[in-house]
Amino acid sequence: MDFSSVKLNPCDSFKYRFDNLSIAPSVRPFTSTSFTWDFGDGSAQQTAGTGSVFHNYTSAGTYTVKLILNDSAYCNYPDTVIKQLRIASLVKADFETPPNGCAPYDAVFNNVSLAGSQFTWDFGDGSATSNAVSPTHLYPNPGTYTVRLVAVDSGTCNIVDSTRKIITVFGNPTADFIATPQPPEVNTPVSFSNRSSSDAIRFKWEFGDGDSLITTSRSDVLHEYNATGKYNVCLTAYNQANCPATVCKDVNALVNPAVDVPNAFTPGKFGPNSTVYVRGYGIANMKFSIWARWGEKVFETSSKKIGWDGYYKGKLLPMDVYAYTLEVEFSDGTKTTKTGDITLIR
Fold first, then answer.
1. pTM to 2 decimal places
2. pLDDT per residue over 165-178, tens digit each?
3. What domains appear along the chain, each with residue ranges and CATH number?
4. Cβ-based burial of 209 (10 A; exposed 0-12, middle 13-18, buried ≥19)
């Protein structure tokens, strides 16, 4: 199945002839009602055979024309051929400028020309031109490019029109980092030193164990691994244009399971001793509970990142000795239980 369209004179009219180019097998020719035309402008569909049909559009615009095979005697029923028809008395070349991108950049150009049956694109980078209606073009290198579109329509009064627009393709930063200590030291956090290029202003760290960090700081990043192993660490750096660059490196960690709980803390004051945390390495799961002298549970957590600040129900508890129980499962599958006392000092 196929069809063609021919714009009829005068040049400022919107009358078209549509020629059905479909071919039927000789043993089963098309009938006068084998096809339906849909002209895409909301007008009534027209039933026809293989002869030409005429349609007059009332206004300029872009219309989707369909030739539909509605004869169930053919195996490809209900096949449809769809073509876009651009109509205007004067052809006007126009396209939507794609957003600026990062090299290598696949720029998608949306052709919004009025009328036009043939198009020629020059992408401004010295590469081959394109005759596609709405092409995609790869810009491998950063730069500012002037894109030119020429639209041709012999059925319009001016026949040819062109337009130019500018697109900018930005370069990418360079991402890099150094991890220390490597080889690893037992139960020692890994320090990551950011060595990305100076145009990078934002960073995403992915530590290979499910943890990540987004930051604008170039300061060294410390990360504590929970199990011995090799981790694929990735750093993505972004520049002012939000163009990314990523580098990934294998980093080794060496962890021996260990756990401990401080025996005293000073809540309500600044410093590392103001909150009591479970300390340890290789902790996969835990349950840390603290009990007051009168037997009431005043705190519980399953994360070593969450500690007790000495408060219970919104009030700082008095200076006293509090009991704790700790159940831990390590990343190597071993388990341990600890009990003890914590002195709250005020």
1. 0.71
2. 999 999 999 999 99
3. 3-87 (2.60.40.10), 95-170 (2.60.40.10), 177-253 (2.60.40.10), 258-344 (2.60.40.1220)
4. middle
